[in-house]
Amino acid sequence: MSEKKYLSLDSSILYRCNQKYFDKRLAKYEIGYTQLILLAQIYENEGISMNELAVSGVFDKGTITKAIQKLEQLGYVKIVASEVDKRFKSLYTTEKSQEFMPELYRIRSEWNAYLSEGLSSEDMDAYYLAMNKFIEKAREYSKIEFDKENIDVKFYGLQKLTLLDFPGNMATTIFTGGCNFRCPFCHNRSLVFLNENDQEISSQDVIDYLSSRSKVLDGVCITGGEPLLHKDIANFIRRVKDLGLKVKLDTNGTSPEMLISLVEEGLIDYVAVDIKNCKEKYALTVGLENYDISEVEKTVAYLLEGHVDYEFRTTVVKEFHEVEDIVNIGKWIKGANAYYLQNFEDHGTCICQGLQAVSKETLYEMRDAVREYVKKVDVRGVRD
Ligand code: SF4
């Protein structure tokens, strides 16, 4: 009788036998096969998020949530909420799980040795080669499906139509929540310090709205808060691009890796980066003592290389900015395509009260002083 070969059936038999073996061997630890896989992943990647865990093992979120809750109840895993945004949670192993990980690896090695008994190293190499190819293809398929279904970004505002936020385009502006800066002059206080009762708009609702308006809109402006704090923002932007819309991103420049990966994937059409002040006064201006500006410097250097259309901009506040500071910013961003100075406006919603705009004359003086460093400089928010 010829031996029939069914890839998915064979994989499923192997999976179920794996499950039976590990469930039995791990029974005294009160965990099963799925928890074992998750625990090993957390142990090898301390601080991993639920979402990363789901993506790495192609798990659905329900399975992950249940399994992690069980691991936490049993004292094997700690869940730590981010200080910046409580909705983001990182996972860590505990002393209890760290103690039994060597045993867990031993159980796994024994099973591998049992399964591969009698096979040569060439047989094993051939198996791993083929298996890796299958997994790569299967992941590719699952990633497309996963990315479409799981977008863990919530929004806290949607302005249906703007002609100003995305220059030259009819756009919708959407606001993410949470920020890693505390700029005293920030007028989006409610977006920086999120309240539990704040009304959220789901990614799907935003996509549905944009989809219904995609024929009349040119693009979307994604602002915040700080949009790049949201790990799923790439998935969201992919959906926006699927609708044929352009994307403008407003960012404080603190996540250069994320920005670069979005740009390299062709997901961003225009970036506006806030340059809060000259390097020496950065920490003071973003409200964080001893802030290290190296990430912002990376963002600036990358944009100056011209990979995407961009602008730099500074909100000018009397208490924080002198003409000399703006000149120093000019030297830093030397050669930039466009730089805008926007005068501070007090809407009564700022993080700190009592700050003031500079005079129109000072703003123009700043503009003229920085002209020699950038290709284009202009002022915004000035009424003649
Ligand atoms: S101004 Fe921008 S970067 Fe600063 S706290 Fe507000 S949202 Fe964050």
Overview of the molecule:
By secondary structure, the chain is of the alpha/beta class. It has two domains: 3-115, Orthogonal Bundle (Arc Repressor Mutant, subunit A); 149-380, TIM Barrel (Alpha-Beta Barrel), CATH 3.20.20. It is 45% helix and 16% strand. The chain contains 14 helices and twelve strands. It has helices at 7-25, 33-44, 50-57, 61-73, 95-115, 121-149, 189-192, 203-213, 233-242, 256-264, 282-285, 294-304, 323-332, 360-370; strands at 48-49, 77-81, 89-93, 154-162, 171-176, 201-202, 219-223, 246-251, 270-274, 309-316, 339-343, 377-380. The chain has a nine-stranded mixed β-sheet. The protein has a three-stranded antiparallel β-sheet with strand order 1-3-2. Strand 8 (246-251), helix 10 and strand 9 form a beta-alpha-beta unit. Helix 2 crosses helix 4 (61-73) and helix 10 packs parallel to helix 12 (294-304). The protein is elongated and about 85 Å long. The model has no long low-confidence stretch (mean pLDDT 89). The structure holds iron/sulfur cluster.
